[in-house]
Amino acid sequence: MQTRLIFAALRKHRLATVLIAMEIALACAVLCNACFMIANRLQLTKVDGGVDERALAVLTLSGFDAAQPGDLNARVTAGLRAIPGMQSVSVVGSVPFAGHGTNAGVTLDPAGKRFGGVLGFYTDGPGSFEALGLHLVAGRAPQAEDFQPMAAFVPNDSQVVVSRTLAEHLWPDEDPLGKEFWCGNFHFRVVGVVAHMARPGAGEGGTGTIEWSVFVPAQPGPNLAGTYLLRADPKDLPRVLRDAKAAIAKIAPDVVLDHDASRTIGELRERYFRNDRVMAGMLVGVIAALLGVTALGIVGLASFWVAQRRKQIGIRRAIGATRGDILRYFQTENFLIVGFGIALGMLLAYALNAVLMKFYELPHLPLYYLPVGALALWLLGQLAVLGPALRAAAVPPVVATRSV
User: Which of 23, 127, 142, 321 has its CA 20 to 30 Å from the CA of residue 367?
Assistant: First the structure.
């Protein structure tokens, strides 16, 4: 009976009802997708890099003569290894979370017809695999004979180690050991699998592809020089890195030290995910502002309707309606309006997610975000309408009828 009365009243205020329902629909669509994006970004920042981050740092040089990389590598590695507390120094192409690295598309056949995805490549020299602390779960680590001269960005024919995530992507439900893939004319054969290995630089697809990484053993030379992986005890690492930076001026006075890129892996990780944390914070602000505006809209509309219905409220109170009846009336009315907005908002949420998937490579919106968003908006609606509903329930019958 009360629901029928509510629908009859809403038909007399179609425009206001539709406007508030549309506002709730928009809030639902944005809320679901923004929460999903926040969760996606925060999940990305917690990715396991697969390396011993607390014990590692990188030193990057530039401005050296590319024609004499062997001399530079020999001088730098020998000089840095003499620093007290230095456990190892190795020549690398990149390190996790450096923000840059080699990304290239690969295929699972030499003809290039079976595309495997865009992968991140580590081209690192002898000793780097052990220094990184990668955890081998299948196969073997690179051997001395696997470190071959680089033809371009990788050796022509490489025995490589891949992450478990990448192996499951390329060869689901198959043993990845011995599998082959190609990047143009470059050939790779998998000899080992590690538990985790985050790609050096940004890649496509967010959290799903951040571990699509390949470790390619390579011999230092013209295409592999100037970047050095330092390993030390975690408590000594800041001092060791500081001493290494100071020592470069004496070891190789002919080069330029890149102070911005020469950091601990922990610092690189912090910087790498800074934009993701900032974006998550901005989205939280957007959600708070949108929910605040939605709540104010509900409060304003409910207060307006209470002022308009003082006569009806007084009559209902006079014929026996309790304060609880009046309170439930406005709460039920709000529940129905919010419910209509949520139903439309769920469709808008999926439409918005489809746009984000197309242009920003966001994953598909999981279904469970919809009921969570609906529950949040229903709760917001009930809290927002509570004040006006309590004022309506407090209207005395005599005052209400005399005010007409």
Answer: 23
- Mean pLDDT of all residues in 94-118: 88
What does the H/E/C string look like for the chain? CHHHHHHHHHHCCHHHHHHHHHHHHHHHHHHHHHHHHHHHHHHHHCCCCCCCHHHEEEEEEECCCCCCHHHHHHHHHHHHHCCCCEEEEEECCCCCCCCCCEEEEEECCCCCCCEEEEEEEEEECCCHHHHHCCCEEEECCCCHHHCEECCCCCCCEEEEEEEHHHHHHHCCCCCCCCCEEEECCEEEEEEEEECCCCCCCCCCCHHHCCCCEEEEEEECECCECCEEEEEECCCCHHHHHHHHHHHHHHHCCCCEECCCCCCEHHHHHHHHCHHHHHHHHHHHHHHHHHHHHHHHHHHHHHHHHHHHCHHHHHHHHHCCCCHHHHHHHHHHHHHHHHHHHHHHHHHHHHHHHHHHHHHHCCCCCCCCHHHHHHHHHHHHHHHHHHHHHHHHHCCCHHHHHHCC
Instruction: Tell me what the pLDDT averaged over the chain comes to.
Output: 88
- pLDDT-derived band at 203 (thresholds 50, 70, 90) equals low
